[in-house]
Amino acid sequence: QVQLVESGGGLVQGGGSLRLSCAASGRTFSSNYMGWFRQAPGKEREFVAAVSWSGANTNYADSVKGRFTISRDNAKNTVYLQMTSLKPEDTAVYYCAGSISGLRAIPTGRSMYPYWGQGTQVTVSS
Questions:
Q1: CA distances to 30, 36, 91, 110 from 85, in Å
Q2: Are 23 and 4 in contact (CB under 8 A)?
Q3: Which long-range contacts (CB under 8 A, 24 or more apart) does 87-90 make?
Q4: What is the average pLDDT score of the chain?
Q5: Which residues lie closer than 8 Å to 33 by C-beta, 6 or more apart?
Q6: pLDDT tens for residues 52-111?
Q7: What 3-state class would DSSP assign to 39?
């Protein structure tokens, strides 16, 4: 059974930093992209960032470019999202996701990610 478990969320002041972790179990994601999405109250779940197996290729939403960094440690089967210069508009539940296998390009659509974690709350105060 595949499980993705996020951790590291919490309450932080604007301008602060947090690092989210996503530990995968049940399979290795050696041919999958791993991504982070977020969903704010009353809004659709949106793409935040994704990373290739090697870590060499990444993609970010324009709203987080330059502030967030995605990385992965394949030995630990874990993906990270380092978030800096946080803003109140970053407040959301953050979800880790594993993509469909064998894709050539980094997917940003939710439908390309069949594996999901339960989410971790990030709240940024002003």
A1: 31, 18, 12, 26
A2: yes
A3: 87/14, 87/124, 88/14, 88/124, 88/125, 88/126, 89/40, 89/63, 89/124, 90/38, 90/64, 90/122, 90/124
A4: 95
A5: 50, 51, 52, 53, 98, 99, 103, 106, 107
A6: 988 999 999 999 999 999 999 999 999 999 999 999 999 999 999 999 988 989 999 999
A7: strand
Q: What is the spatial distance between Cα 115 and Cα 56, in angstroms, rounded to a whole number? A: 22
In this predicted structure, the answer to whether residue 29 has a pLDDT above a threshold of 90 is no
pLDDT at position 102 = 86
Q: Is 44 helix (H, G, I), strand (E, B) or coil?
A: coil
Angle, CA of 123, 81 and 16, to the nearest 5°:
45
What does the alpha-carbon distance between residue 83 and residue 66 come to, in Å, rounded to a whole number?
10
